[in-house]
Amino acid sequence: MAKHYVKGHDLIHVYSKSDKESAPRLSRPKVVQGHVVSRDGRDYLRDDDVLRKKFGKYDKGVERRCLYEEILEYHSEAKKREIDRRIEAGELVLEPFRDTGRHVIVEYKPIDEMSSALYSLLPIVQYLPDGRLDELGLSRHFTYPKPVELVKTLIRSVTPKGDRPLVMDFFSGSATTADAVMQLNSEDDGDRRCISVQIPETVDADFEDRHVFATVDAVGRERIKRAADNIRNDSQFDVDYGFKLFRLEKPSAKTLDQLQSFDPNEDGVLLAGDFVSKFASNGTPGSQVALSTWLVQDGFGLTPTVNAVELDEYKLQVCEDSGYVIEPGLDSDDVMALVDKLEAGELDLKRLVVFGYSVPFSVMHELRQNLKSLRSGQVVSVIERY
């Protein structure tokens, strides 16, 4: 069909879990026309045409705005009460109208909160390849990267400021989406978060830097690092540009077989540490892999705050109301120290999750018995996992 016409468009599919009526509006920054006023480093549109005397046409030279003192002359008492309420709330202000002794009703609208509906047609010249990968020194690694400005437009249209919106890219590739999110946050002081998903797909055999980047996700991670440095240097925007790397992996069949055949009731066995280390992956300690997995399983997400609480000598990992015993080393003295902290109100736990292979049978028995009979009446559930 190429000989019959030139294709001048492409399609972007938009889906919403909400129904048509409650689905969020796709928005874009509003083109502001009018009187702009700056206050405390923020720009506002001054709108002094808040209320009119009537709808329709006006004769030339006739004041169409309804002044505050004229509200009851042209409108109902309910409208007067509404205006008074908004004035009291600080949404509207009264300003002198010439030298008449009367007042015009004015609204100051923050420009950074104003938006218009996104057009269904996006001008293509605005979203042609923008050389972003050239700027970051990675252009030779991807032939057809998504234009950053296009991705920024789409993300901006659905991420209201202040709600810590989460953007998820299921096919991260060159990490254009992560780059776009960081750029947007630096431009509007936003708080968007981003999850980039990419399978560890090996790069092509003729890939120029295969000795440096063996997989596509490795190139994406490098792009995020370089983009962060670039944005930080250009904008001086002070924010944490770091990221966390999570790998989704299944334990090997050999590891599972060993765990299933291990007898946790055999007291004094010294192999427990080996069972924790069996979960190590790509340089991440097995204890961290197990903890991250269980935190997600327990509903705390990928990036919760975890504190290490020192008992006697053992450090208990605590997230909100849950404690985690994963590493071996918990002994009777640590159990008593835990009980003391719970009864003194220094620690507030509802559940204690224990990797069963890391705790000897006698210590586990002692742990259960002591947490069952706390003097404070506090109830702590002990959950064993294998």
TrEMBL record:
<protein>
    <submittedName>
        <fullName>DNA (Cytosine-5-)-methyltransferase</fullName>
        <ecNumber>2.1.1.72</ecNumber>
    </submittedName>
</protein>
<dbReference type="GO" id="GO:0009007">
    <property type="term" value="F:site-specific DNA-methyltransferase (adenine-specific) activity"/>
</dbReference>
<keyword id="KW-0489">Methyltransferase</keyword>
<dbReference type="InterPro" id="IPR002941">
    <property type="entry name" value="DNA_methylase_N4/N6"/>
</dbReference>
<dbReference type="Pfam" id="PF01555">
    <property type="entry name" value="N6_N4_Mtase"/>
</dbReference>
<dbReference type="GO" id="GO:0032259">
    <property type="term" value="P:methylation"/>
</dbReference>
<dbReference type="InterPro" id="IPR002295">
    <property type="entry name" value="N4/N6-MTase_EcoPI_Mod-like"/>
</dbReference>
<dbReference type="GO" id="GO:0008170">
    <property type="term" value="F:N-methyltransferase activity"/>
</dbReference>
<keyword id="KW-0949">S-adenosyl-L-methionine</keyword>
<dbReference type="InterPro" id="IPR041405">
    <property type="entry name" value="T3RM_EcoP15I_C"/>
</dbReference>
<dbReference type="Pfam" id="PF18273">
    <property type="entry name" value="T3RM_EcoP15I_C"/>
</dbReference>
<keyword id="KW-0808">Transferase</keyword>
<feature type="domain" description="DNA methylase N-4/N-6">
    <location>
        <begin position="3"/>
        <end position="187"/>
    </location>
</feature>
<dbReference type="InterPro" id="IPR029063">
    <property type="entry name" value="SAM-dependent_MTases_sf"/>
</dbReference>
<dbReference type="GO" id="GO:0003677">
    <property type="term" value="F:DNA binding"/>
</dbReference>
<feature type="domain" description="Type III R-M EcoP15I C-terminal">
    <location>
        <begin position="286"/>
        <end position="376"/>
    </location>
</feature>
